């Protein structure tokens, strides 16, 4: 697992900087809540997330105690946001991730959602869109009954970690579920009234193009309305990284990765799913993951759980800078919790913030993030956000087929498919 960033200390009471304040004129910034559940039955060889098996934990960090511990942080978050003048906002999106959230009893996951609802309230159709409430799940960690409990509690989406439909690919990834179970769990979720997303990974060592085609086609055959497809990234410190270093596994080259991305885009588009972010496709905007869109658009969110990250903008709108004057160069604050569940639980039980460190974003850093995240969306980035050098670079990127020319004329930087494959390079030129 990667080390946490190095930042300045978080106050014991979790207080936000004085310059973080609510918008003076504009409507309240959207607000989301992420809940990290750090439990897995086994640790997959490629995974570097902050996860733990049951045998590694105990006491207040146990699965049985986790809902109570998480609700302590919900209470702390409410107090901190109230003190900063940012309370009173209903929650627009909730995302329960991990780990494997559905290793917890469905009633415990529902209890955490109840605590979030009781503390802030959830957005409802009378004030706009109803709240989107998602949980991740492994295909072997749900039943028809558990999914109905989640739907009755207010969950609206479930995102299954399918990863592949090919047994030898799943074996390399050390995924434990039977791929034949995928159609069943999708049907169970839909019968419960939940929207369903499937997550796929391409570029696993030993995966052929035909293997990848089989995985995408299997996902589409379930009729889901949302698919995420991510290139495998092998992080240092993972078991798979050691296997690659020792020559046990061989990673595919960039051309293989590009071919698989293009194949996925062809198959998903032909089935009626359109890309809305570089790695995400949905059947209409109503099926896009609004919680992840909130990250990419720079909205506020609070991350509950060990190792979870949070962000609050410092200016009057998301991505804007704080007013001039003392601390006027700051544009937002990001902080992260201690990683180990036992330490996380102990701090909250003691009435202290579990924050391990925080970063005060400058105007320049916030600008870079706004470009980096905004350009990944199919809606593109308003060219007015760019500085003069960035705007000057647009014509060259259009000429090289990386940005859409028609969109650029209309004042938006929108990636072409070739541009999606080279998104990081596009960002570097727009922010040079």
From TrEMBL:
Keywords: 4Fe-4S, Chaperone, Cytoplasm, Heme, Iron, Iron-sulfur, Metal-binding, S-adenosyl-L-methionine. NCBIfam families: hemN_rel. Residues 25-277 form the Radical SAM core domain. The gene is hemN. This is Heme chaperone HemW. Belongs to the anaerobic coproporphyrinogen-III oxidase family. HemW subfamily. Gene3D superfamilies: Aldolase class I. Probably acts as a heme chaperone, transferring heme to an unknown acceptor. Binds one molecule of heme per monomer, possibly covalently. Binds 1 [4Fe-4S] cluster. The cluster is coordinated with 3 cysteines and an exchangeable S-adenosyl-L-methionine. InterPro entries: Aldolase_TIM, Coproporphyrinogen-III_oxidase, Elp3/MiaA/NifB-like_rSAM, HemW-like, rSAM, rSAM_sf. It is found in: Cytoplasm. It comes from Isoptericola cucumis. The lineage of its organism: Bacteria, Bacillati, Actinomycetota, Actinomycetes, Micrococcales. It comes from the Bacteria.
